[in-house]
Design brief:
The complex is a heterodimer of chains A (350) and B (406).
Chain A: H1 16-20, H2 39-65, H3 69-72, H4 78-91, H5 101-119, E1 124-126, E2 136-141, H6 150-158, E3 171-176, E4 199-204, H7 213-217, E5 223-225, E6 231-233, H8 243-247, E7 253-255, E8 270-272, E9 284-286, H9 291-294, H10 301-305, E10 311-315, H11 322-329, E11 345-348
Parallel strand pairs in A: 1-8, 2-11
Antiparallel strand pairs in A: 2-10, 3-4, 5-6, 7-9
Helix pairs in contact in A: 4-5
Chain B: H1 2-19, H2 23-49, H3 64-81, H4 83-87, H5 95-119, H6 142-169, H7 176-202, H8 215-241, H9 248-278, H10 285-292, H11 301-319, H12 321-324, H13 327-345, H14 347-353, H15 369-397
Helix pairs in contact in B: 2-15, 3-5, 3-7, 3-8, 3-14, 5-6, 5-8, 5-15, 6-7, 7-8, 8-9, 8-13, 9-11, 9-13, 11-13, 13-14
The chains are: A alpha/beta (350), B mainly alpha (406).
Bound molecules: iron/sulfur cluster (SF4) (2 copies).
């Protein structure tokens, strides 16, 4: 996308090459598009077949050593055999963004099946890709927010976050009137009736930067920007080094320090591979603009839950969308713009 | 084929050598083994519970492990800088120090790798990093660079001393044409592992405390003080407990390196403090936290002030030849410097990078018992490996271990 028809104002940091590809979101190699493969993809293709060999060799070795006893023991039930066979294949599967559609389906079938074996319930995991001509953006009306935190709760329920450690993607900062946007003095952990006198509220979460530093630093490309601008994480590929967490200037990422727990009856069974499917310990996660909802044309859970209408979500490339109207007509700003991260999350006031 | 046979015999002899020793030696190795086992037990707890067994949180997401990793990269790099004068400038004095230095580099590197693995949330998935079967984010991620340079450095530092030892073991003189290029390479590489590790932090615009052009050079300066300081201490111990001769001259020369590096380091520290406190900006807030505490949260204060006072005292004392040339005082000064830099490059560098958090939240970090135990275990592992390497190396050098042709 050229500078002239770019949908928002950005700082000139001499990043002309990068901002070229801003609109399509392909600069981080995140889109599994139909365009001809470049050298990089080809190398990765080779590596996929190499991995198959690696899997077989390792499996051979371990079976030889009797380590996968449960999968070949006579006593083990069919189910436990199936389970460990699936765990095995899951362990050696590749990075999602390099998988073919067939491999994605296979992996999803395994995940669904193993949930069924463990909990006796069916879940639905989608692998829907980004649509053409879609670039998601978000706007937040500071004048309207009253700090009810309905968004926070809706987010936790929608995205199957760990209940025991009270992980939350959204933080609502309670700021004192007359002090400006003073995050240092703000309280992001309040337990009192809102709106509190003399205060205003401001929410932060992952801003889905268009030039995301968290993506650059990941040593194994477990996190990337999709074509529709959503920054996602492959929970099964992440090795848990937390470098991305250190690189994020917006406190957007959360880590599973322990095995996350969600009571069975509260599990949201409508899932996306890159979104709210259940995580394991030792991996990174964060807001995905509710990818399981937004790619189906719905609003994220936080937008839907907000009783004041402070939150707006939409397609930046659609000239008739509300978000475009806000960007064109309101005095919008973004946080820490000087860092050149180009968040796709704008604030404005009435 | 023949080399293989020699190598096999060297391993066999080395095994005999390291399993025999004085009573003090056995106690030392026994204690180290116990600490290692204790660390392993605690690591198994961490594997079971996840990283919640450590003191790290979403707010301070790197802690003791990464601090030690950072510091040890410095030690590994600095140990090899002694190699250059010894092999290339034909400075006989350094010769014995060099083998010790390389052994130190190898053990420090293995400790580095152990600390990185201990810090991973999913160590079982580390194969995702192996080029060829995993996906390696090269050249974008500095961590990918770091993995390459650290492993490359490890490889170089194992092959060179191995070649020299094998030659000596057979009673031959090592051929300089073969090892000198390797030595040069390893010296450049030592600078590289340093800079890349500094860039790991320096490249993050999210953390103003690290995003500072002086970080890389300061890494070098402090490492060239801490690394050789450790070598001096180790040489002193070896001199005391073994028949290995190390001349006073050698130690005095190394102390020169320590002194100059410590002085440069101090100048850079002053420059940093000046920038942070003469015209403080919003970005100085982590430094304020580190040196003075914020909102009554002062966990790092005792650490950093201990570090600074030890650092200043040791550097000033080292500057005077009279004091420095008294070996017993020198050992104490080296110990002070080593501790000072361990605090400064570890805790004092990593933790304040996260405090206050991106939105100004100040939540402090205290390592947990499990974390401290694993850390101790890894240090014991390093000492264990180093003892084995040094003992073999010394025996070969002194001609006690010779290849017997059958
Ligand atoms: S807000 Fe943080 S986690 Fe989200 S895209 Fe930007 S840098 Fe990455
Ligand atoms: S924690 Fe996971 S997503 Fe983040 S940088 Fe490490 S491997 Fe990548």
């Amino acid at each position: 996308m050229s500078e002239t028809n770019k949908k928002w104002y950005s700082l000139n940091l001499n990043r002309s090459k990068k901002s070229e590809s801003c609109g399509c979101g392909s600069n981080s190699g995140g889109c599994n598009s139909d365009k001809p493969k470049d050298g990089f993809d080809q190398i990765m293709d080779i590596s996929m077949s190499r991995r198959t060999a690696f899997t077989k060799i390792t499996a051979g070795l371990l079976i030889g050593a009797g380590a996968v006893s449960s999968s070949c023991s006579i006593i083990g039930s069919d189910e436990s055999k199936e389970k460990s066979a699936m765990e095995w294949e899951e362990y050696f599967k590749g990075n999602y963004k390099l998988m073919t559609d067939e491999e994605k389906d296979k992996s999803i079938n395994r995940l669904v099946r193993s949930y069924e074996l463990n909990h006796g319930k069916k879940i639905n995991i989608s692998s829907k890709n980004a649509e053409e001509n879609v670039l998601f953006g978000y706007a937040f009306n500071i004048s309207k927010c009253q700090g009810y935190m309905d968004c926070v709760n809706a987010c936790v329920e929608e995205n199957n976050q760990d209940r025991t450690s009270e992980m939350q993607y959204i933080r609502i900062h309670e700021m004192k009137d007359g002090k400006g946007f003073n995050f240092e003095e703000a309280d992001d952990n309040y337990y009192h009736e809102v709106p509190a006198d003399g205060h205003f509220y401001m929410g932060t979460q992952c801003f889905h930067c268009d030039n995301p530093p968290c993506v650059e630093v990941c040593p194994v490309q477990a996190t990337w920007k999709e074509k529709d601008g959503i920054v996602v994480i492959d929970y099964d590929w992440c090795i848990g080094c937390r470098y991305c967490m250190a690189a994020c200037p917006y406190d957007g990422r959360r880590f599973n320090w322990k095995t996350p727990e969600v009571p069975e009856e509260e599990v949201n069974k409508n899932q996306h591979y890159l979104g709210n499917r259940l995580r394991k310990k030792g991996v990174m996660e964060k807001c995905t603009f509710c990818i399981q909802r937004s790619r189906e044309g719905k609003n994220p859970a936080c937008v839907e839950a907000c009783p004041t209408g402070s939150r707006t979500f939409g397609n930046l490339l659609d000239p008739n969308s509300t978000i475009r109207w806000i960007l064109d007509n309101k005095k919008v700003f973004r946080l820490k713009e000087d860092l050149g991260t180009e968040p796709k999350f704008w604030y404005y006031m009435d | 084929m023949k080399t293989l046979k020699v190598f096999g015999s060297l391993i066999k002899d080395a095994f005999l050598e390291v399993t025999h020793g004085s009573r003090a030696y056995h106690i030392w190795m026994g204690v180290l083994t116990l600490i290692m086992l204790f660390g392993m037990y605690n690591y198994s707890i961490q594997l079971e519970q996840g990283l919640s067994a450590t003191g790290m949180t979403d707010r301070v997401s790197w802690g003791l492990y990464i601090s030690n990793f950072t510091f040890l990269v410095g030690v590994a790099a600095a140990a090899v800088m002694l190699v250059l004068p010894a092999y290339v400038l034909k400075n006989i004095d350094f010769k014995q120090a060099v083998l010790i230095g390389e052994g130190l580099a190898v053990s420090a590197l293995l400790m580095c790798l152990a600390f990185v693995v201990a810090d991973m949330g999913g160590p079982a998935r580390l194969w995702h990093m192996i080029p060829g079967i995993g996906v390696f984010n090269f050249p974008n991620s500095m961590l990918a660079w770091d993995v390459i340079v650290l492993n490359g450095y490890l490889f170089i530092n194992i092959t060179i001393p191995l070649y020299i030892l094998i030659m000596r073991y057979q009673g031959k003189t090592p051929n300089p044409k073969i090892y000198i290029p390797g030595v040069f390479l390893s010296v450049f590489w030592a600078v590289a592992i340093h800079m890349v590790t500094a860039f790991l932090y320096q490249g993050l615009q999210a953390r103003p405390f690290w995003n500072n052009a002086l970080l890389g050079p300061r890494f070098l300066a402090s490492a060239f003080a801490a690394g050789p300081a450790l070598i001096i201490i180790v040489l002193a111990i070896i001199r005391k407990f073994t028949a290995f001769k190390i001349a006073d001259e050698t130690i005095k020369k190394i102390s020169m390196i320590v002194t100059v590096a410590a002085q440069i380091n101090l100048i850079m520290l002053i420059s940093e403090l000046f920038k942070e406190f003469y015209a403080p900006t919003h970005h100085s807030i982590s430094a304020v936290y580190l040196f003075f505490g914020l909102e009554g949260k002062t966990a790092l204060l005792p650490w950093i002030w201990t570090s600074i006072s030890l650092n200043v005292m040791a550097t000033i004392a080292l500057t005077f030849h009279k004091i420095r040339n008294n070996l017993n005082i020198l050992y104490v000064l080296c110990g002070m410097l080593f501790i000072a830099i361990w605090i400064e490059k570890g805790f004092g560098l990593i933790v304040p990078g996260f405090i206050p958090g991106p939105w100004g939240k100040i939540s402090e970090y205290t390592p947990s018992f499990v974390e401290i135990s694993v850390t101790l275990g890894i240090w014991a592992m390093g000492a264990f490996i180093f003892t084995i390497l040094a003992k073999t190396g010394i025996a070969v050098e002194m001609g006690q271990l010779v290849y017997k042709k059958k």
